[in-house]
Design brief:
Strands 2-1-3-4-5-6 form a 6-stranded parallel sheet, sandwiched between helices. The chain is of the alpha/beta class and 217 residues long. The chain contains 11 helices and 6 strands. α2 packs parallel to α3 and α6 packs across α11.
């Protein structure tokens, strides 16, 4: 069909790729390829030149944002929607800075996913609206700070910095604990201390402020 939207799915989990394929079935979307990592995605994009890519962020052998940057460097018409499990401020800001046309969470409904693909294919940018509003509101709040990064770095311990980096990636207390070998309760205590030291009221504000001050890249 002439009005079909060609699409590539890039995700390192076969079940996720299968789920996305199922969600996109019986629509105007033609799936022209699958990739299990960013490098595969880039190779397929260069060969097939799909209209849209659904790109997971956390993948081996070139992550999704690195693949997005490589695709944009080729100046192709392909538009990329970043897809992630994590409500990560860092991921959102990095994705938009690298030229993503969309940013959606993996708990998106079929109707929302189809609408996102159709909108991006038509040239519109689309980001999970509630998440974007939260981030923008907290960015505005963070801009009002008079604290210097040096003051905050001195105030944070090495363990707190480890936890802050994982908080910025959007990991839950349990997931952070799994990475660092701590209990979820211990991580929660660290997170509360971090938010107090950063002068913020929630994790999103803490992540935004950490990024704005250059504590976390």
């Amino acid at each position: 069909m002439a009005n079909e939207i060609t699409l590539l799915i890039a995700d390192d989990h076969p079940m996720v790729r299968a789920g996305l394929k199922s969600m996109l079935s019986n629509s105007r979307i033609q799936i022209v390829g699958e990739a299990a990592n960013g490098r595969e995605a880039l190779d397929i994009v260069l060969k097939v030149k799909p209209k849209v890519v659904l790109m997971d962020i956390r993948m081996p052998d070139m992550d999704g944002i690195q693949a997005l940057e490589a695709i944009k460097a080729e100046k192709l018409d392909t538009r990329v929607i970043m897809v992630t499990t994590y409500r990560s401020t860092a991921y959102l800001l990095r994705s938009l800075s690298a030229g993503a046309a969309g940013f959606v969470l993996k708990d998106i409904s079929r109707e929302e996913l189809l609408a996102a693909v159709y909108s991006v294919a038509q040239g519109t940018s689309l980001v999970d609206s509630q998440f974007l509003q939260d981030v923008l509101r907290n960015l505005e709040s963070a801009e009002k700070t008079n604290e210097s990064p040096e003051d905050l770095v001195e105030a944070l311990t090495a363990r707190e910095m480890d936890i802050l980096r994982l908080m910025v990636e959007g990991l839950t207390n349990q997931a952070i604990g799994d990475v660092l070998g701590l209990s979820a309760g211990t991580v929660k205590g660290y997170a509360q201390t971090l938010m107090h030291k950063l002068g913020t009221n929630d994790r999103t504000q803490a992540a935004v402020k950490a990024i704005r001050l250059g504590l976390v890249k």
